[in-house]
C-alpha cells in the first residue's frame, strides 16, 4: 500500500478582517404598514426593528458579497490571491447552479480558490467559520473568505403580519487565516430536524411553478415556539460554547447573537446572566433580520463604531431554520 | 407537594411582576394576560417557562395559546403539575 503524505496546516486560525454591505435603500416601518394592519409601536415592541435595508435589482447576492468581501480583505491586510477558499452561506440566491461562491471568487480576483455555497439558515455564519477553521488547520487553504449574504426581501410575504417587518438584506464577510494562538474556540453546533416546521419556506418552488399555489414562496415561522427555543435552548448552547472555550461570562467583552429579534437578544442576555460590562450587538434595530449575514454585519458595525475593539473576546451564536445552531468564542479582528 | 390554586396564583403574580412589571395584586384569576396585564405573546413564553420551572409542569407550545387568563393557566398547572 502506498504511503500517503499527511496534510499540514496552521496550528490555529483567527478572524483577520471583517466587512459589511448594507443596501442603499433604507425601509422604515411606515412602508411595511402599507401592506399589513399593524403599527410602528407594535413592530418596535415585538422586534426592536425601526428600519431595515432592502436591496435594489443591482444589489444582487453576488454584488453585495463582493462589496463586503473587498472590505474584509482590505481589513485583513492580505492580497486577494492568497485566498484559497470562498464559502458563501445563503438561502436567498435564486440561481442555485452554479454556486454563487464561484462567481464571487472569480470577480474578486482569487487564484482559482475553492468555492462553494452552504445552506444553514441563520446559523450559516458559524457553520462557514467552522469549515474555514478546518480548512486552515489541515492546510487545504491558507486564507478563507466566509460570507453570509441574504436578499430576504425576496422571500418575505408582505401581507403576513407576523413576518412582513422582520427581514432585511445585506452581506457580511470575514477573512479567516492562520494564527499562532487559538482565536476561534471549539464550535458547539447541531441540528434539530424534528422542529423543521418551526421556521420554513412556505412551499417548494415547484409548487409555485406548477400553479398549485398562487403566492411566491416566503419564509414563515411559529413566533412563540421560535422564541422559546431561541432564548432558552440557545442560552444552553451559548453556555456550552463558553465552557468549551474554557472561559466564563466574566471573561467576555462582546456578545454577538444572530440578530433575529431584539426581544430574543434581551432575554438571552438575562438567561445567560451576562455582566454589565459585556457589549451586546443590537444591530437588528436598523438592519432587520438578515439571517446568515447578521453576525458579521453586527460585528463590523460594533468595530466601526468603537463599541468593540480588535482583540476583544466575543461569543457568537447563530440559530434558525432547520432548526440548526452554531456557537463559538472568537477573538475580534 | 402539589401547589394549591392560591399558591399557583401567587406564584404567577410574582412571575408576571418580574417579567412585565405588573403589581402582584393585579394578577387575579379573571385577568387576561394580553388585555389586562400587558403580557404580549413573547412575554407569555417567558411567563410559561418560569411557571414550568416553579411548578414542575410541562406546557407545550401548542397549549400556550389556550392560556388566555390567569385562571386558564392556574387550571392547567393544577391539572398537570408533577
TrEMBL record, chain A:
Pathway field of the UniProt record reads: Lipid metabolism; fatty acid biosynthesis
Database matches in Pfam families: ACP_syn_III, ACP_syn_III_C
**InterPro entries linked to this entry:** ACP_syn_III_C, ACP_syn_III_N, FabH, Thiolase-like
Domain Beta-ketoacyl-[acyl-carrier-protein] synthase III N-terminal residue range list: 116-193
Active site residues according to the UniProt entry = 122, 258, 289
Q: Known EC number(s)?
A: 2.3.1.180
Q: Which reaction does it catalyse?
A: malonyl-[ACP] + acetyl-CoA + H(+) = 3-oxobutanoyl-[ACP] + CO2 + CoA
Lineage, top-rank taxon, reads Bacteria
Q: Where is this region: ACP-binding?
A: 259-263
The principal location of this protein is: cytoplasm
**Which residues does the UniProt record annotate as the domain Beta-ketoacyl-[acyl-carrier-protein] synthase III C-terminal?**
242-331
Regions annotated as coiled coil: none
Quote the subcellular location field of this record.
Cytoplasm
Its keywords, alphabetically, are:
Acyltransferase, Cytoplasm, Fatty acid biosynthesis, Fatty acid metabolism, Lipid biosynthesis, Lipid metabolism, Multifunctional enzyme, Transferase
Provide the family line: Belongs to the thiolase-like superfamily. FabH family.
Q: Please give the HAMAP family that the UniProt record associates with this protein.
A: FabH
- Subunit structure of this entry? Homodimer.
Note what the entry says on domains.
The last Arg residue of the ACP-binding site is essential for the weak association between ACP/AcpP and FabH.
Know the name of this protein?
Answer: Beta-ketoacyl-[acyl-carrier-protein] synthase III
Native source organism of the sequence: Streptomyces djakartensis
- Gene that specifies this protein: fabH1
From TrEMBL, chain B:
Q: Give the UniProt record's GO annotations in the biological process aspect.
A: lipid A biosynthetic process
Q: Which InterPro entries match?
A: ACP, ACP-like_sf, EAL_dom, PP-bd_ACP
- What PTMs does it carry? 4'-phosphopantetheine is transferred from CoA to a specific serine of apo-ACP by AcpS. This modification is essential for activity because fatty acids are bound in thioester linkage to the sulfhydryl of the prosthetic group.
Q: Where are the transmembrane segments?
A: none
User: Boundaries of each Carrier domain copy?
Assistant: 3-81
Give the highest taxon in the source lineage.
Bacteria
GO annotations of cellular component type: cytosol; membrane
Residues modified to O-(pantetheine 4'-phosphoryl)serine: 41
Matching Gene3D superfamilies = ACP-like
What pathway does the UniProt record associate with this protein? Lipid metabolism; fatty acid biosynthesis
**Places the protein is found:** Cytoplasm
Q: Which PROSITE patterns match?
A: CARRIER (PS50075), EAL (PS50883)
Q: Name one GO molecular function term.
A: acyl binding
Record function comment: Acyl carrier protein involved in meromycolate extension. Carrier of the growing fatty acid chain in fatty acid biosynthesis.
NCBIfam families named in the record? PRK00982.1-1, PRK00982.1-2, PRK00982.1-4
UniProt record similarity statement = Belongs to the acyl carrier protein (ACP) family.
What protein does this entry describe? Acyl carrier protein
Q: Which organism is it from?
A: Streptomyces swartbergensis
Amino acid at each position: 500500500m502506498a504511503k500517503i503524505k499527511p496534510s499540514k496546516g496552521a496550528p490555529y486560525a483567527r478572524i483577520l478582517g471583517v466587512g459589511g454591505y448594507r443596501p442603499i435603500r433604507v425601509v422604515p416601518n411606515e412602508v411595511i404598514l402599507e401592506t399589513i394592519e399593524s403599527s410602528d409601536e407594535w413592530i418596535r415592541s415585538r422586534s426592536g426593528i425601526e428600519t431595515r435595508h432592502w436591496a435594489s435589482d443591482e444589489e444582487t447576492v453576488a454584488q453585495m458579497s463582493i462589496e463586503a468581501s473587498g472590505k474584509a480583505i482590505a481589513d485583513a491586510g492580505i492580497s486577494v490571491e492568497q485566498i484559497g477558499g470562498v464559502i458563501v452561506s445563503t438561502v436567498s440566491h435564486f440561481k442555485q447552479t452554479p454556486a454563487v461562491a464561484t462567481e464571487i471568487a472569480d470577480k474578486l480576483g482569487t487564484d482559482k480558490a475553492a468555492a462553494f455555497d452552504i445552506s444553514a439558515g441563520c446559523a450559516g455564519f458559524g457553520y462557514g467559520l467552522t469549515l474555514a477553521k478546518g480548512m486552515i488547520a489541515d492546510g487545504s487553504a491558507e486564507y478563507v473568505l466566509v460570507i453570509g449574504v441574504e436578499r430576504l426581501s425576496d422571500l418575505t410575504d408582505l401581507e403576513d403580519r407576523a413576518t412582513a417587518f422582520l427581514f432585511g438584506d445585506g452581506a457580511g464577510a470575514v477573512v479567516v487565516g492562520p494564527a499562532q494562538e487559538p482565536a476561534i474556540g471549539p464550535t458547539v453546533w447541531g441540528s434539530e430536524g424534528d422542529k423543521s416546521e418551526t421556521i420554513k419556506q412556505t412551499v417548494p418552488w415547484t409548487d409555485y411553478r406548477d400553479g398549485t399555489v398562487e403566492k411566491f414562496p416566503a419564509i414563515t415561522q411559529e413566533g412563540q415556539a421560535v422564541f422559546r427555543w431561541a432564548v432558552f435552548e440557545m442560552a444552553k448552547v451559548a453556555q456550552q460554547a463558553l465552557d468549551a472555550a474554557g472561559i466564563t461570562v466574566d471573561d467576555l467583552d462582546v456578545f454577538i447573537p444572530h440578530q433575529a429579534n431584539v426581544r430574543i437578544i434581551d432575554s438571552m442576555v438575562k438567561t445567560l446572566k451576562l455582566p454589565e460590562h459585556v457589549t451586546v450587538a443590537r444591530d437588528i434595530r436598523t438592519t432587520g433580520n438578515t439571517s446568515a449575514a447578521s453576525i458579521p454585519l453586527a460585528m463590523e458595525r460594533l468595530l466601526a463604531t468603537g463599541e468593540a475593539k480588535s482583540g476583544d473576546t466575543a461569543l457568537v451564536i447563530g440559530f434558525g431554520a432547520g432548526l440548526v445552531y452554531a456557537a463559538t468564542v472568537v477573538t475580534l479582528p | 407537594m402539589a401547589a394549591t390554586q392560591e399558591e399557583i396564583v401567587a406564584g404567577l403574580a410574582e412571575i408576571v411582576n418580574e417579567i412585565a412589571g405588573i403589581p402582584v395584586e393585579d394578577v387575579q384569576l379573571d385577568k387576561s394576560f394580553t388585555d389586562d396585564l400587558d403580557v404580549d405573546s413573547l412575554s407569555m413564553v417567558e411567563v410559561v417557562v418560569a411557571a414550568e420551572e416553579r411548578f414542575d409542569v410541562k406546557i407545550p407550545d401548542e397549549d400556550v395559546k389556550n392560556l388566555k387568563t390567569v385562571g386558564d393557566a392556574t387550571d392547567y398547572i393544577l391539572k398537570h403539575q408533577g
